[in-house]
Amino acid sequence: MSRAADSGIILIARLALSVLFLWSGIMKLLGYGAFVGYLQAKGVPLVQIAAPVATAVEVIGGIFLVIGFMIRPLGLVMAIYTIATAVLGHDFWNVTNAALQHDMVIHFWKNVGIAGGFLLLMVTGAGGASVDAARAPRRPSL
Predict the structure, then answer these.
(1) Residues near 114 by Cβ (< 8 Å), separated by ≥ 6?
(2) Which Pfam families match (predicted)?
(3) What is the C-alpha to C-alpha distance for residues 2 and 37, in angstroms, rounded to an integer?
(4) The predicted structure's pLDDT at residue 42
(5) Is residue 53 within 8 Å of residue 85, measured between CB atoms?
(6) Using one digit for the tens of pLDDT, what is the confidence trace for 50-74?
(7) With contact defined as beta carbons under 8 Å apart, do 14 and 25 qualify?
């Protein structure tokens, strides 16, 4: 990191991303049956596997974002997950209702933008305010 403020900014970015996934994951847990039904209605294959995996990715991924644990690999996993959910859950190209299609387009591109944020975290790492930084080997001072 080139500036002292970078760690704080990366922490804010991690927290901002975590809110969406923690909230969504917890809502999936609380309404698990409805979530499974939604996936079935969308034609998602292997719903019995996809539903618990999606829920776990969101809850565990959200927690890891907050604490800053394994952020580089998590960034890649979350970027892939977010693009997959955009394609499967916001398939605007299959929607004929103009208002609903407009909404789906916005959500699709929102997911693409979020995936971009995750790719940035993959490159930058967790920053100084993180478990990753606490676990990193210390360089001797000269």
Answers:
(1) 17, 20, 82
(2) DoxX
(3) 48
(4) 86
(5) no
(6) 999 999 999 999 999 999 999 999 9
(7) no
The residue-averaged pLDDT of 19-38 equals 96
- The number of beta carbons lying within 10 Å of the beta carbon of residue 28 is 21
Per-residue pLDDT, averaged over 82-110, amounts to: 94
Cβ neighbours, 10 Å, residue 53: 12
Helices 32-42 and 47-67 cross at an angle (nearest 10°) of 120
Q: In the prediction, which pLDDT does 141 show?
A: 62
Does residue 14 contact residue 66 with C-beta atoms inside 8 Å? yes
Residue whose tokens read 């002292």: 4
Going from the C-alpha of 106 to that of each of 14, 32, 34, 103, the distances in angstroms are 22, 25, 23, 5
pLDDT of residue 137: 81
Q: How many Å apart are CA 88 and CA 108, to the nearest integer?
A: 10
Of the pLDDT bands very low, low, confident and very high (cuts 50, 70, 90), residue 136 is confident
End-to-end Cα, the chain, rounded Å: 18
Q: Which of 118, 104, 113 is nearest to 62 (CA)?
A: 118
